[in-house]
């Protein structure tokens, strides 16, 4: 099997089938969220998929769903300021969910704190074109962020490196890297500019070499607001150093163990099940979970 | 109370993680010492599963070991999955059981390789329909009772507490009455059990077990079933 074939199978493993339980649940959850918001705010907000679902970069191992809820520029029903829109959307969702505010989104959890992997992103369109939007920021000095979902979708889809983006996303999750996915996505597209004709394995090796050797020189900008949104903090020195170290050890793993050293052996569900049982048998100091409830 | 945590410096922890768990890193948010990142469970080249975790070095449990949280939301917060608070705190083990099993204090790698890995391996099994291949303890006092039964050979809580009271003494005489309540002397009854446990466990651990048993089984619940 060539590296490219192997990576293609890894991507297949990470693809959520349209009829999968996970996607079915996410779709139901999205509908539920929309029903809740429509009940409070009527037909005025634009509610649609954002994030990886809209960009085609979703992976099974981290399948959070972004649902955007943008209000028209002249609609004050949900609040006169971005902050009040954020708070009112939060209040609406809190009727049914436990809500956890994030930087610009609201995370939904069930009553027993089960995570539904759904983030609702409230905002307000900048003008009547309904393209650019402002989001409220709960942290940091700047309380407002300009964004454009369609530009982001276009930026990813037109990059020609969606497969690499998905694999880099998997790499980030498994490596426990602290860089935000959004920043890593932009960085991947930036570094792989002009490399879309290369095979996926060549793209990834090139990306990791760049991260290992020239991470300081890589610059990213938000396509929705190139001069306005400062992404420097998302790619600060500590994050760059972490990326460089991880890239270096990843390249070493490829040299040593091939691509399986990065993403593991391919296995069917039954082979994985057997591996779990075998791994349990191999435990030399067994301990069992308990519950102090 | 036994302390099963071998204190390590930040530098020692960082160096150990870099080699064995490169997907975890020691951070200091708000001046707390927290290990963050992905805890990956692998076996013979298979990637079995990964969990986003926080290991709170400054929040020790009753054994002095760090608190572990699953923060990625992969595991439902429910007793059946051994996570039952909103923070994702993992009930990795039964403290009484670990106190009996572990002879030397654990460093970070032994802790991660042992109870932490066992816990997440069990969670992967649970997701795949083969729940907790290493087994699981009953919830709350039930688990403690199971463990004491295995250790002391009696499924009667009152008898177990009586054994632990005896075992918590520095000196034990063979002519004393056997704690099982048979009316015979220890030498003519459960001397073997008492000797085995004394040889296996230090006094601090035996006293810890007594203290915990009294906590889980208050006075009224420990009425002995006489043979």
Beta-strand portion of chain A reads 5-15%
Secondary structure: number of strands of chain A = 7
Could you name the CATH topology of the largest domain in chain B?
Ubiquitin Conjugating Enzyme
CATH level 1 name of the largest domain in chain B: Alpha Beta
Largest interface: A-B, 46 and 62 residues
Structural class of chain A: alpha+beta
- Rounded average pLDDT of chain A: 93
- Class by helix and strand content of chain B? alpha+beta
Q: What ranges of chain A have pLDDT less than 50 throughout 5 or more consecutive residues?
A: none
Number of strands of chain B: 4
- Low-confidence parts of chain B, pLDDT < 50 over ≥5 residues? none
Question: What does the model show?
Answer:
The complex is a heterodimer of chains A (293) and B (227). Chain A has 293 residues and is of the alpha+beta class. Chain A folds into two domains: 135 residues, Beta Polymerase, domain 2 (2-Layer Sandwich), CATH 3.30.460.90; 105 residues, no CATH class. Helices cover 46% and strands 13% of the residues of chain A. In chain A, strands 1, 2, 3, 4, 5, 6 and 7 form a seven-stranded mixed β-sheet that branches. In chain A, α6 crosses α7, α6 crosses α8 and α8 crosses α9. The radius of gyration of chain A is 21 Å and the shape is globular. By secondary structure, chain B is of the alpha+beta class. Chain B has two domains: 119 residues, Ubiquitin Conjugating Enzyme, CATH 3.10.110; 82 residues. Helices cover 38% and strands 15% of the residues of chain B. Chain B has seven helices and four strands; from the N terminus they run αββββαααααα. Chain B has a four-stranded antiparallel β-sheet with strand order 1-2-3-4. In chain B, α5 packs antiparallel against α7. The mean pLDDT of chain B is 92. The interface between A and B is large, with 46 and 62 residues.
């Amino acid at each position: 099997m060539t590296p490219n074939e192997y990576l293609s199978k890894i991507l297949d493993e990470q693809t959520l089938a349209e009829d999968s339980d996970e996607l079915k649940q996410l779709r139901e959850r999205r509908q539920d969220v929309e029903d809740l918001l429509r009940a409070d705010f009527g037909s005025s907000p634009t509610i649609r998929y954002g994030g990886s679902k809209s960009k085609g970069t979703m992976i099974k191992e981290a399948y959070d769903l972004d649902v955007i809820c943008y209000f028209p520029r002249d609609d004050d029903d949900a609040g006169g300021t971005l902050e009040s829109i954020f708070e009112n959307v939060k209040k609406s969702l809190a009727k049914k969910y436990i809500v956890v505010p994030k930087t610009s989104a609201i995370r939904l959890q069930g009553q027993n704190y089960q995570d539904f992997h759904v983030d609702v992103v409230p905002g307000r369109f900048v003008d009547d074109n309904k393209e650019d939007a402002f989001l409220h920021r709960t942290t940091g000095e700047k309380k407002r962020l300009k964004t454009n979902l369609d530009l982001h979708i276009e930026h990813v889809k037109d990059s020609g490196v969606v497969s690499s983006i998905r694999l880099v996303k998997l790499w980030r999750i498994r490596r426990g890297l602290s860089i935000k996915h959004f920043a890593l996505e932009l960085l991947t597209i930036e570094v792989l500019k002009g490399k879309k004709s290369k095979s996926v394995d060549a793209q990834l090796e090139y990306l990791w070499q760049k991260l290992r050797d020239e991470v300081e020189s890589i610059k990213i900008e938000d396509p929705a607001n190139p001069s306005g949104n400062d992404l420097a903090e998302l790619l600060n020195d500590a994050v760059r150093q972490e990326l460089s170290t991880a890239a270096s050890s990843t390249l070493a793993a490829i040299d040593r163990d091939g691509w399986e050293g990065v993403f593991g052996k391919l296995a069917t569900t039954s082979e994985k099940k057997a591996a779990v049982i075998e791994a349990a048998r191999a435990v030399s100091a067994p301990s069992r979970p308990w519950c102090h409830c | 109370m036994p302390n099963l945590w071998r204190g390590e410096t930040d530098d020692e922890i960082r160096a150990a993680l870099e080699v064995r768990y490169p997907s975890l890193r020691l951070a200091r948010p708000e001046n707390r010492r927290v290990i963050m990142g992905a805890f990956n469970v692998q076996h013979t080249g298979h990637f079995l599963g990964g969990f986003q975790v926080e290991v709170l070095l400054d929040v020790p449990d009753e054994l002095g070991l760090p608190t572990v949280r699953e923060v990625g939301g992969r595991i439902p917060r429910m007793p059946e999955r051994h996570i039952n608070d909103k923070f994702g705190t993992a009930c990795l083990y039964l403290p009484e059981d670990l106190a009996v099993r572990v002879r030397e204090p654990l460093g970070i790698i032994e802790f991660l390789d042992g109870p932490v890995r066992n816990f997440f391996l069990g969670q992967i099994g649970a997701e795949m329909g083969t729940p907790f291949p290493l087994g699981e303890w009953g919830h709350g006092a039930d688990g403690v009772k199971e463990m004491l039964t295995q250790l002391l050979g009696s499924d009667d809580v009152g008898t177990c507490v009586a054994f632990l009271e005896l075992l918590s003494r520095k000196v034990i005489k063979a002519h004393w009455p056997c704690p099982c309540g048979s009316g015979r002397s220890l030498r003519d009854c459960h001397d073997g059990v008492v000797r085995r446990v004394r040889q296996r466990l230090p006094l601090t651990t035996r006293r810890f077990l007594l203290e915990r048993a009294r906590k889980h089984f208050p006075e009224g619940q420990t009425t002995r079933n006489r043979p």
